[in-house]
């Protein structure tokens, strides 16, 4: 007779189990959706970060390009001595882009780029130059913050 009592259940007893299992299933599916959306947003942010242009890099490219075009137009050079002689005779040579600028340092025979961000000094880079096959090559040898 004990088995007879187990078969009779109270009303709504199975409904509670169905609701609990349904709730667990919904929570699992929502968590899976949340994880997928996090993965997608991480990919999108990574994609944007790859194509982000840094202000310092842009300033560097523009200043060195303008310096190179200035030398190409105004200096008849065969070797490094021609360039150093030309810039030694010029007083206060500077090429500006925004607040940043490039100038020639006579003492060390180098071109120096000074970066100014938000009207504050940010960084200085020293570039040596060499002429190979008629082209000017620049190399950063030192920088300071």
Mean pLDDT: 87
Q: What proportion of the residues form beta strands (DSSP E)?
A: 25-35%
Low-confidence stretches: none
Return the structural class.
alpha+beta
User: Structurally, how many domains make up the residues?
Assistant: 2
Helix content range of the residues, please? 40-55%
Q: How are the strands of the largest sheet arranged?
A: 1-2-3-4-5
Distance between the termini: 90 Å
Question: What is the number of strand segments?
Answer: 5
Largest sheet: 5 strands, antiparallel
Secondary-structure element series? HHHHEEEEE
Integer-rounded radius of gyration:
34 Å
H/I helix tally = 4
Q: Which descriptor suits the 3D outline?
A: rod-shaped
Structural account:
- With 145 residues, the protein is an alpha+beta fold.
- It folds into 2 domains: 36 residues; 90 residues.
- 51% of the residues lie in helices and 28% in strands.
- The protein contains 4 helices and 5 strands.
- A 5-stranded antiparallel β-sheet has the order 1-2-3-4-5.
- A hairpin with a 4-residue loop joins strand 2 and strand 3.
- The longest helix is centred in the N-terminal third of the chain and has 38 residues.
- The chain is rod-shaped, with a radius of gyration of 34 Å.
- 9% of the residues are buried.
